[in-house]
Design goal:
By secondary structure, the protein is an alpha/beta fold. It has one domain: P-loop containing nucleotide triphosphate hydrolases (Rossmann fold, 3-Layer(aba) Sandwich). It is built from nine helices and ten strands. A six-stranded mixed β-sheet has the order 6-7-8-3-9-10, with helices on both faces. A four-stranded antiparallel β-sheet has the order 2-1-4-5, covered by helices on one side. A hairpin with a 4-residue loop joins β1 and β2. The longest helix has 16 residues. The two termini are 27 Å apart. Bound molecules: adenosine-5'-triphosphate (ATP) and magnesium ion. The site of adenosine-5'-triphosphate has 12 residues, from α1.
């Protein structure tokens, strides 16, 4: 199943095939049991894609494999039609919360500036433009007031927004976000969604791991449903099919209850 047609206004008009990410027959194992088994999908440029599936279903592993952080047993990842390692500089990543320990002293603004390091040979080479882009990114996630604060002194949700700013400052064409909405309040969730939508409107491609099935349809153009294997990839209304969810999720009754609640509210 494929998603809708690519965004013709995308900044990267050199992409002859208009596919941002192509994953083919990807199998990744950490031990004897594969975390991902024979996963294939093609994501067009300019899409906002959600990745859903229960805990341990391989969502973070898929993101890490696209980034080249884990080596596949089998299969390939191509970005903009090229082997993934050639396009590394065009990808930004916001890790799953709690996976980064910010014990060392660094300010919020410095974290946002880290998004610019890839563009310069050394941090001393940072230019006025880099500071401007980092500050704009902090503004976007509404964290400007905290710019001089140590990152370790922020709440989890605030740290999450700073990591988003770092990714935004990078100016990457592909953004991979691992559960950016986890544990944030409703206002922050709105702010993050707004940033995702603006980034998409700028022609970028976003892949976002998401847990909340009740908002998945509203937020994303297409959904990837994973549990070791790819169970579905396509428009949210097709992927959020009760039978499919029942097969993939344990505690299916809760899933049904959530969906019914949503339907009742519509
Ligand atoms: N570094 C690792 N070493 C060994 N096993 C791992 C490692 N990382 C993940 N796994 C295993 O691989 C499987 C997939 O993990 P992954 O982190 O991709 O799941 P996930 O869908 O992101 O889960 P969650 O919703 O809890 O974040 C799990 O069974 C997990 O225990
Ligand atoms: Mg995960």
């Amino acid at each position: 199943m494929s998603a809708s047609s690519p965004n013709s206004t995308h900044a990267n008009e050199d992409n002859t095939n208009h596919l941002a990410i192509e994953v083919e027959n990807l199998t990744v194992s950490y031990g004897p049991v594969p975390a991902l088994l024979d996963v294939s999908l093609a994501i067009p440029v300019g899409q906002l894609v959600g990745v859903i599936g229960p805990n341990g279903s391989g969502k973070s592993t898929l993101i890490k494999a696209i980034l080249g952080f884990v080596r596949p047993d089998f299969g390939t990842v191509r970005l903009f039609g090229e082997p993934a390692d050639k396009a590394k500089g065009r990808v930004a990543y916001v890790p799953q919360r709690g996976s980064v320990d910010w014990d060392f002293p660094i300010t919020v603004r410095e974290v946002a500036l880290m998004g610019r390091y890839g563009h310069r040979a050394w941090w001393r080479d940072l230019k006025a433009e880099d500071y401007r882009l980092a500050d704009e990114a902090l503004e976007m996630v509404r964290m400007s007031d905290f710019a001089s604060r140590q990152i370790g002194q922020l709440s989890g949700g605030q740290q999450q927004r700073v990591f988003m700013a770092r990714a935004m400052a990078q100016g990457a064409d592909i953004l991979l976000l691992d559960e950016p909405f986890a544990g944030v309040d409703a206002a922050t969730e709105r702010a993050i969604l707004d940033v995702l939508e603006r980034t998409k409107a700028a022609g970028r491609t976003l892949v976002v791991v998401h847990h909340d099935l009740t908002t998945a349809q509203e937020y994303f153009d297409s959904l990837v449903l994973l549990k070791q294997r790819l169970f579905a990839f396509g428009p949210p209304e097709a992927v959020l099919h009760p039978e499919l969810l029942c097969e993939v999720y344990e505690g299916a009754l809760r899933v049904f209850a959530e969906l019914q609640k949503q339907e009742g509210a519509d």
